[in-house]
Amino acid sequence: MPFSDTVNWTPSHSNDLYNIDGWGAPYFSVNSNGNLTVRPHGSKTKDHQEIDLFKVVKRSSDPNHAGGLGLHLPLIIRFPDVLKNRLECLQTAFDNAVRSTGYTSHYQGVYPVKCNQDRFLVEDIVQFGSFGLESGSKPELLLAMSCMCKGSSSEPAYIICNGFKDVEYITCALFARKLSLNTVIVLEQEEELESVVEVSIKLGVRPVVGVRAKLRTKHSGHFGSTSGEKGKFGLTATQIIRVVNKLEQCGMLDCFQLLHFHIGSQIPTTSLVADGALEAGQIYCELVRLGANMKVIDVGGGLGIDYDGSKSHCSDASVGYGLEEYAMAVVQAVKFVCDRNSVKHPAICSESGRALVSHHSVLIFEAVSSSKYTVPTMSSFDIQRFVQQLPDDVRYEYDSLSQSAARGDSEACLACVDKLKQTCVEKFKDGSLDIEQLAATDGLCDFVVKEIGDSNPTSTYHVNLSVFTSVPDFWGIQQLFPVIPIHRLDECPTKRGILSDLTCDSDGKIDQFIGGESSLPLHEMEGGSGMKYYLGMFLGGAYQEALGGVHNLFGGPSVVRVSQTDGPFGFAVTRAMPGPSCSDVLRSMQHEPEIMFQTLEHRIKEYVHDDGGAVIASGIAQCFHNMPYLTVGSSCCLTAANGNNGYYCCSDEDVIAVADAVGGDDEQVSYVCA
Ligand code: PLP
């Protein structure tokens, strides 16, 4: 048992064990039922406004639950209220820093859509009013342009056009100016300037131009590898001077209005934030001196997230500051440099992405089984026989193990166990041990491990998830996210486990957790009781959705949007989207599900001549129709399409019918089809 007081366990023990306050406050906590709750308005949330995550999961996934939608897991639950709160907090942090330092201009936030391009998320951000959008590619620009048409801001918010650009990208950005959208073309490479000048003359549009400066300030963490003098992006001092000269020659120096830099994501300290802002501030002032019409300093992204709750700057999993300290560091640094150079304070723009959207969504997935590494325990007779039959060199390993055991040296015993196993596997491979001897070695080793007290080895929890699709940053860059059970938190977790996903890939597992742990405290799975075991991955609202691939053809999760309401449920599911079906993911790899199905139908006609043919055809059709993930708790996919699942692949009318059927009471519900 890993924890001492298992009987008097309370939700607050779980809070401490999983450090929920550390990484989750003010948005996540545990209620007295032992369920994880979401505090949708952050620190302004009243107790009755907390949303019980377990209830949301039941409502979204369980077709037998009152009003249940029968969506398949994995499930992303978005909380637009949390997003709004993050936007407000960032705006307030900068407003306060501006006010308290006597800064004479203002803050203008810009959301980098690369963080999460989800339509409803971006629309929410634009609706908020004062935030603009940043694009790094042509589709992102198109997205930003159309979304900003719906913006409610009286002062048109920026569309910052970053990234490498061709003539088409530049042309679209200039078309946007014709449409009275406030686009700024930020030169990522010096060569882009020629196209900007040419196309703007041709279209008769006055561009607003910025440059991305390649700062010397270097961020040393993983995300800083593109910063510093040798970084991939931005213009050097020499190139910036050439841009000034060229614009001056073309009579367009008044178009040069913005200086941008981005030293990397997840900046560990405010002193590094300030260093970057000081260096960029000085370049800004020099540009003013050289006659550019400077108005904005854009400090890029980098505002970090405390994924492990340690408030430390020693790893990429944490940062040692909050929104207020970040805003203060930026404003003070820019003010200091501008005052020193007697330059008017510019508008400060930040492209904070991770910090805005990480908290707004939670990924829910199920553990479907757990297995401990077990081997049959050997009777002492077996061990005797085994020892007698050992080849000499394996016998030597065995003797070392016996001697360590006699000394009571458990550490040496474990080392000998490893060595003995390794040697036996080698011998098995070269044919000098048979399979019974190999199994006997495992049995002996298991026996020894148990005897020396390591009776609770790590279990493997198989989860209905693809790590590659839903947590790509864990796989790709070992980014840690908090993962915890979302219920049973009033119960002591008596096991430790790692999470192994559905893909046939050894990398498809999560075996590193926040706090430097190589296993996670988990509850015993209640085999056969029908009780599901739900886990949540938190703070994954940025980057994971767009980075995720379709390894093994597992597509994305189902998605619901959940808002806090004052009605009887306390929340409303305002949008529900089943994840991609098997057909959808096959189509993404250029297969044609309809033709595939016809081929199989012909085959059925050829080989099955009784009524069974119809059953096979309908089973296969249903499989195309359903999500690729395991249908947990259902005997087979034939039953999965009944009841509420009927809206997985349907016409608009069907969707509305389902919405009417499950909506009821005071909840404003609209469900859309994939
Ligand atoms: N701006 C630019 C140019 C970026 O490249 C990025 C991310 O890499 C961002 C903003 C967003 O950074 P973050 O998510 O750290 O705020």
Please give a quick description of this structure.
The chain is α/β, with parallel strands linked by helices. Helices cover 41% and strands 15% of the residues.
The CATH C-level class name of the largest domain: Alpha Beta
Mean pLDDT across residues: 88
Kindly estimate the percentage of residues that lie in beta strands according to DSSP: 5-15%
Radius of gyration: 29 Å
Low-confidence region ranges = 635-674
CATH superfamily of the largest domain: Alanine racemase
Small-molecule components bound:
pyridoxal-5'-phosphate
- Which geometry do the CA atoms define? globular
The assigned structural class equals alpha/beta
Total number of beta strands:
21
The end-to-end span amounts to 45 Å
Task: Please state the second-level CATH architecture of the largest domain.
Answer: Alpha-Beta Barrel
**What is the count of helical runs?**
24
**Main sheet?**
10 strands, mixed
Count of spatially separate domains: 5
CATH fold assignment of the largest domain: TIM Barrel
**Which percent bin holds the helix content?**
40-55%
Describe it for me?
- 41% of the residues lie in helices and 15% in strands.
- It is α/β, with parallel strands linked by helices and 674 residues long.
- The strands form 3 sheets. Strands 4, 13, 14, 15, 16, 17, 18, 19, 20 and 21 form a 10-stranded mixed sheet that branches.
- The longest helix has 22 residues, at 80-101.
- It starts with 10 loop residues before the first helix and ends in an 11-residue tail after the last helix.
- The protein binds pyridoxal-5'-phosphate.
- The site of pyridoxal-5'-phosphate has 17 residues, from helix 12.
- Pyridoxal-5'-phosphate is lined by residues 112, 115, 134, 162, 262, 265-266, 300-303, 351-355, 542.
